[in-house]
Amino acid sequence: MIVDRHGTPLAVSLTGGNRHDVTQLIPLLDAIPRIRGVRGRPRNRPKRPFADRGYDYDRYRHLLRKRGIRPLIARRGVAHGSGLGRTRWVVERTFAWLHQFKRLRVRYEQRADLHQGLLELACSIICLRRLRKSF
User: Fold this and answer.
1) 21: Cβ contacts below 8 Å, ≥ 6 apart
2) What is the rounded CA–CA span in Å between residue 57 and residue 22?
3) Do 3 and 36 form a contact (C-beta atoms < 8 A)?
C-alpha cells in the first residue's frame, strides 16, 4: 500500500499471504495516480518513499534511483533509530484504520476479487471520513 503524507491510500495491491511485499514495490509505484500541483505537469511519482527493512534490497534501490526517486529505506543489520519511524507511523496508522474492518483483518474470503473489492471499499470509506473531517 502506498499512502500520502496524511495517510490517505493512493495505491493498494493484493497478493497471496506467502509473497514478499517487495515484489509489489514497482507495480505500486506505477499505480500511483497523477498528483496535481499548483503549476506545471502533474507529478506521477513520489519524491522519496519511506520503507522498512523488508524493502532493503539493492536491486529495488537501483530501480528506484533509475526512475529518479531517492529511496529512504531502513538498512538491515543496522541499529534502530534511523529516524524513519517519524514518518512510517502514517503507514502503520493507515493499516490500523483498515483493520477496523473485521473482514479485512481476518480474511474470510477465498476469492481474491472479493477481498480486493472489500479493500477498495474500505479505502473509499477511509477517504470519505477524512474528507468529512476537513469540511
Assistant:
1) 15, 54, 55
2) 9
3) no
Closest CA to 103 of 93, 120, 113, 115: 115
Pairing of strands 9-11, 2-3: antiparallel
Tens digits of per-residue pLDDT, 21-72?
788 788 888 877 776 666 777 666 777 777 777 778 888 889 888 888 888 7
Q: Residue 1: which of 71, 93, 69 has the closest Cα?
A: 93
Model-wide pTM > 0.85: no
How is the chain split into domains, by residue range? Answer: 2-44+81-134
Q: Are 1 and 88 in contact (CB under 8 A)?
A: no
What would the 3-class secondary structure string for the chain be? CEECCCCCEEECCCCCCCCCHHHHHHHHHHCCCCECCCCCCCECCCCCCEECHHHCCHHHHHHHHHCCCCCEECCCCCCCCCCCHHHHHHHHHHHHHHCCCHHHHCCCCCCHHHHHHHHHHHHHHHHHHHHHHHC
Decide if 51 contacts 71 (C-beta within 8 A).
Answer: yes
